[in-house]
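Progress against Task 2.4 (sequence-to-structure conversion) is shown through the following example record, which the project officer requested during the mid-term review.
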Amino acid sequence: MSNDVVICVHGTFAEDKDQRDDGPRWWQRGSTAWHHFARELPSGVALPGKDERLFHWSGKNTQTDRLAAASDLLELLYRLELEERPYHLVGHSHGGSVIWEALITAQLLHERYQPLPTEAKRSVSGLSRRFKSCDLDDPALPDRLRLPRLKSWTTVGTPFLHYMPKQRWYHRGWTHPRVSLAGGNPGLTPQLDSARQLPWLLVVPVILLSLDLAPGVEYNGFGEYDPGSGWVAALLAACVLLLVVSRLMAAHLRVTRRLTDRARATRRALPHFGPRWLGLWSRHDEAIALMRSTAPTPPSHYAWLFTPAGEQGERPAEPKAPDLPIPVQFKKPPREVDHFSAVVRGRRPFSSLLTPLYWLYNRLIAPRAQRFISGTLLRTAQGNDLPGADLAYVSCWPLPRPEGSGEGMPAELDDALQRRSAGRVQEVAPQLQQLLAQFALDGLAAFGRGEQRAELSGAADVLVHTGYFDDPELIRLICRHIHTMSRHDKPTAPRAPRANHPWLRQAYRDRRTAELP
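Structure tokens generated for the chain above:
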């Protein structure tokens, strides 16, 4: 009987550009963390062998790349299900997001394909194209999509990202005061509930054109149309314009529907996959703090959003995206320069004539430019490249929960990570001073030198977020969780598994008693 396998999923910017399985990164063979895992894993559980390919993904900071990686990971898990081989997942940073997105996709596919016969499954696009190893004729397909051989999954320093549809003039967004995602009612598109209805907007001008009811279109006496004042061309142009607009609206509504489906599936997936989850994060994690600052919506708003419409009560404070103070305004040149003689003027030619232009730009253009640049920078930092989507919530749990809902790791381990990070800062401070001095002398060209790039890349280890797997105690804690779950035959049972670590026991109890927000 083959061993349980541990699949490691790296985070953003941690990929190997050459797709190598051997290297110094924590998830690669030969690394220090790899040796710690091999030594601490319980009997019957092992890392992938030398003849097995490790999991790779692009590591780019975009949600589309994370979703694509989640599909690739789910295909790998489905192959393991076909082989009836148990497995454990360990993800760092956005690698944990990739794991969670894969589990949400599995939940959606299980619900979508379970009640359909084989003929209907073939007519529904998505599964056969997404997973080459999927057999639609397999009667056990819905059960396999429940991933019964997933023994455990662990996330380390993962900010869970929750995307919601934006507000549009033709449908409601997640910030609308009358939106509720509870139950089966979409609640987001009251004007045009289905994207398939949008092309019907073309029916009216086409009927007018075909019945010759448009004004100004007359026969010329020979059974032919007289273009007259050009209403025929105008109607044709209106048809083309409506077609383009309807396609754009249909695309946005499809994104809205899929975002809504995934948001609801998240709440259904957690009771099934949650009992097998271990989340580890430090209260000093820089990446989690940064992501939270870009989406500061409180968890209370998330609970309100998933409350039935008649029971929502008073709406929490409206969430507002942070606004970066980017200086894009132009100031009028001063008449005189301070501390100089009054004879020296700072006045430019025709400056008085430009005063109205300054006013118009600063009042009308500059605020919009500032909001556009600020929004672009925020979306880039968030990795949000989904059209028509907002990053609404960032949490350390798979669902947004209030602060203080359980510790992210043992306090002594958290303090040890912080001390190691502070000690690393003191070590690299002289190197950074030398690099800054070199940049001051040689400019940015100094960055192109190999030795400077190597020193700067080594300075990335000063962060708590990138130093989790440098601590053997954290790896030992993960392996204890794997050992506990590998012995627990029914991870979804109401009773929590017995762990031989006090913090793990408390974490399991908190996870079992936690209610959906």
